[in-house]
Structures
1.
Amino acid sequence: MTAAMYISDFETRTLTPRQKAWDIAATVCDPEIPVLTIEDLGILRNVQVTETGKVTVTITPTYSGCPAMDAIRDDLKAAFAKEGYEDVEVNMVLAPAWTTDWMTEAGKAKLQEYGIAPPSGMSTAQRHAGPIRLTMAVKCPQCASLNTKELTRFGSTSCKALYVCQDCKEPFDYFKVL
Ligand SMILES: [Zn+2]
């Protein structure tokens, strides 16, 4: 980390350069699930602004090889260009690997409204660290029934599995716990 610029709220009563840059980065949405921002998903890991105004954004892909990352990189640069930032670097960090535990509660609520069941339960890493938890039932985003069944392990994208609700009979995507 180079000399990042931090101005306290006490001095300026406005957003620090880092907060301002973070807010710009946080407007970028996931190309596969446009209702979720990269902040909602926990993809956005860090934003730094140097004294010369160079912005460095650090993102962690949801899973390796996800083609959405190229689109996110382009969208980040475009979002900053629109706000007058010319020197923007997007770094991809693969470790520690992204897990659905990083998804924010707001993000999970938005997913459910969008008709995708949010990941339920904990990732493998979390399970190993804490007490043993049983896999939770997947809740139907339409009628909230827990009487659901997996149809295929891989739905419209490899992040999701296709489920069907046995009460309202509606099929839906489930964002798998990773
Ligand atoms: Zn249902």
Note: The chain has six helices and seven strands.
2.
Amino acid sequence: MAKRDYYETLGIRKGADAAEIKKAYRQKAKELHPDRNTDNPKAEDQFKEANEAYEVLKDADKKAAYDRYGHAAFEGGMGGGARRPGGAQGNADFASAFSDVFDDLFGDFMGGQRGGAGGGARSRATRGNDLRYNLRIKLEDAFAGLQKTVNVPAAVACGNCKGTGADDGSEPVTCPTCSGMGKVRAQQGFFTVERACPTCNGMGQTIKNPCHVCRGAGRVEKEKALSVNIPAGVETGTRIRLAGEGESGMRGGPAGDLYIFIEVADHPLFERDGNNLFCRVPVSIAAAALGGEIEVPTIDGGRSRVKIPEGSQSGRQMRLRSKGMPALRGGGPGDMFIELSVETPVNLTPRQREILKEFDTLSKDNNPHGSSFFKTVKGFWDQMKG
Ligand SMILES: [Zn+2]
Ligand SMILES: [Zn+2]
């Protein structure tokens, strides 16, 4: 049997442009879709024929070759041309050309399936949801990293129906309401609205004998214990993705992912800024004025000695190199900063008051900030007067 002309197959004039071709194919695909023509055995072949024609005509290069040489352009091992429909190769083309048009016709026609590139046009499997698990850890654990067992509520494939959702080996059947599209369209005034099919809830399939264990969902709720490796250096907001550990898919679809959201709790001693740590250390007036050495804690549980220079003011920072948090993504660790907080003594005894008063009468140029402040104040008042 001679092969039909591609333009004729799609019912358009020779040399029609891309928009016309797409429009025509769209029409044919809708008309001939096998799900809608279960009683017409010829429909499937015609559908494949239209599909093959579209595969060629939608491609500018192939179309040019076809316009020039006709079917001969793709015969005799030219490669890359039309393939015999029906084989595995033909089916792949079928899916690609088909989804090409139906993607924009029906949105996510695959029933909300995400992840798998392409998928099968007839697959009703749905990917499982991603799960979020909030994990609060101590700063020390963020510093060292830890192995943590988390119990996540997860839906796992139903053992009774092996995830198909159908009981006793009965097969899910194409939904009669939406012809397997998972969506129905309705005319409302000038607008066509599209919504999930009410019969199959967007699955595109209905089950005659739903599995009595999972009620047709193909999965059951279960808790699973997962050992999670929290790397050193994580911070609040770090997400750890465990691929495939989320909810299992519907009817044999792939599982979602599990995301561990890290929250690092505040620490009573250390404040974190990126990879740096800050530790505020109170020191007495005398220690700040005279200088000396103090012992400070480090996040690894150890201690470090820090020299306080003579005459240190409140807020002075001293850096301890590489004593901060490790870097999560390569690079060296942060630093730790010791910030001095000079304390005013309280609850003075009469003797202490006496000494302090005496000290004050002896003080002249001992308060650098004070004297420069009052000099500036005096200048301000003089200028306002003038
Ligand atoms: Zn089941
Ligand atoms: Zn339906």
Note: The CA atoms of residues 55 and 340 lie 74 Å apart.
